[in-house]
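Ticket reopened. Same input as before:
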Amino acid sequence: MTLDGGDGFKYLPGHFDRAAQESLVETVRAGVEAAPLYRPSMPRTGQKLSVRMTNFGPLGWVTDQKDGYRYEPAHPVTGGPWPAMPAVMLDLWRTVTDYPAPPEACLVNFYDPDARMGLHIDWDEEAANAPVVSVSLGDDALFRLGGPQRKGKTRSLRLKSGDVVVLGGASRRFYHGVDRIYPGTSALLPRGGRINLTLRRVTLPD
Ligand code: SIN
Ligand code: FE2
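Engineering reply: fixed in the latest deploy. New output:
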C-alpha cells in the first residue's frame, strides 16, 4: 500500500515501543477512573455503538439519540469535566503534525473482541484542516481506509499495538473504519481488547 501517496495519510508502525505502550495504558487507566467508559447512542435511531468511549482534554466527542454527534466539555454520564489531555499525547501531536495549535480532544475508544466501527468520515470539527492522529493499543485491528466517496475503493491495514496513523491533507476527509478486532493478539491489556486514542483539533485557532 502507499504510505504517503500524496494524500496525507501516514502510517507509523511501532511508533510507541512496549514500555511507552505500558505507560500509555496506565495513563488511560487513570483517566478512565475519573471519566468512565460508557456506550454512546447513535443519532435518531438511538442504537448503541459497539465501542465504549470516553475523552481526555478540554473537549470530548459525544453522541446521543436527541442531539447527535458533537463536542462537549463534560462527560455525559458523570457531568464532570474530561480529564486533562495527557502530556504524551500533546508530544505525539507535535511530533507527527505541523499544525500550529494543540489538539483539544483525545477520544478514547475501547473495543471488546466483537466491537467494530462502521465506515465514516470525521466531520464534526470546525478545524477541518487539522490532521487526525490515532494510536492503537492492545489487540490487532483490521483498519479500512477508503476515499472521499463511501462507495470508492478501500485498502485494509492490520493495526498493531503501538502503531500510529495520521489522517492529514486529503485523507482527513476519507472514509475509514474498523472491520474487526483479532482477540488474543496482544498481551498489553490484561483482559484483552483494543484501545484507540484519537487526537483532534476541534475549534479554529485564533
Ligand atoms: C475512529 O475512526 O474514530 C477510530 C479508528 C480506530 O479505532 O482505529
Ligand atoms: Fe474516525
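The chain has one domain: 3-200. The longest helix spans residues 18-34. Please confirm and we'll close it.
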